[in-house]
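notes to self, project folder thing:

trying the whole complex as one job this time. last attempt i did each chain seperately and stitching them together was a nightmare. two parts in total, labels are on each line so i dont mix them up again. if this works i'll redo the older ones the same way
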Amino acid sequence: MKIKKLFQQAASIVVLSFIIGFSVNFSLVKKYFQGEFRHAFILSEEYPSIKFIFLAEAEELFSRGEALFIDTRSEEDFQAGHIFGARNIPFVEHEEEKVLNLLPFPLDKTLVVYCDGSECQSSVELAKFLHEHDFRDIRVFFGGWVEWVREGLPVDSGSEYDSQ
Amino acid sequence: MIRNKYILFAFRLMVGGVFIWTGLLKIFDPLGFAQNIANYKVFPQGISFFLALFLPWIEVICGAFLIVGIFRGASSLLLSGLLSVFLVLIILTILRGIDIDCGCFGSIGRKIDYKLILMDSVLLFFSLNIYLKTK
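result (full assembly):
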């Protein structure tokens, strides 16, 4: 088969896939251009209890003392340093049952979940899990631990039980 | 290179069948697949999103074409390309020590491990043989 014809056929398949993929998911494409999915690939109407917040709001919630901060990083990372007063609930996929045992909070409590920063996903995964278990006010702190430390905000180290 | 037409037909059925199945799983959950792509930490959020919209359709169309026997060369070439990219991504992910689902089967969780490298390599071998036969 001539190489030119082969590439023409391959290009046709790619173009066809583009057209079908975009047409079938037109509503998602529209939502993307309206600003959704910039932080995580979740539909706001499917997860109405989850909000994405930035440093200023996280700091305000921290200073008001009404929200519970949940650190979803590993126990080792948490012990090395975490937001002052945070609880450690590392979210490990396929081990969700363990997480339930660590959640003795009222369902309307404001929960601020965070992990390393904008590139980690465990905070979003935990937020989805919390939503599915009827928690009603979940904020994902997008900047996470990296941004909190960079701004010199209050931190602690050791296990959460050391500071109690 | 394998020349036996019955074996090559079996290769087409296997590669085509696997890609139709995995492609459909991804088509039904585009956001889940977008998240899977983003988890590799190779592509930015926007690119992960748009890849998730059309990549599964390439898989399904090429898979169907392979089974039916239309555009066999182009379909096997595209699928070989995809399999090669998947292989590189899987190896890089293992080397970087990132523990994630591969995203190969849509929202059905399948962790990245060495067995996955073997599975992708076998499919790539089948797919390349189909391509070389059409040349």
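what i see at first glance: Chain B is about 75% helix and 0% strand.
need to look closer tmrw
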